[in-house]
């Protein structure tokens, strides 16, 4: 399921080698524009917990460039692209939970 937020993230995605992805859908490397370690590390953490994922990692090609490279390798027969989308959806839920807890704590603080 692609949510509105993950659809916005997908607009920032560029598949590094579309031909390689067609040959082997279990290997995917993407460039995620306008992002940095904040999303990269959180995304890697979610991906590493997924049972379908054999390898995941990210790097920042250059500190002055506003992009990260994300690599996902899944078990044979599992689409790395679908797993990446699922990871973005899970990450969205994590961020929503953090936001909700923060807003509750802020309301409690202002109520004092």
UniProtKB/TrEMBL annotation:
Keyword Transcription among UniProt keywords: yes
Stored SUPFAM superfamilies: RBP11-like subunits of RNA polymerase
UniProt cross-references to Pfam families, sorted A to Z: RNA_pol_L_2 (PF13656)
InterPro entries: RBP11-like, RBP11-like_dimer, RNA_pol_Rpb11_13-16kDa_CS, RNAP_AC19, Rpo11-like
UniProt xrefs under Gene3D superfamilies: RNA polymerase, RBP11-like subunit (3.30.1360.10)
Main localization (coarse): nucleus
A single GO BP: transcription elongation by RNA polymerase I
GO cellular component: RNA polymerase I complex; RNA polymerase III complex
HAMAP family (alphabetical): RNApol_arch_Rpo11
Name by which UniProt lists this protein: DNA-directed RNA polymerase I subunit D
Species assigned in the record: Toxocara canis
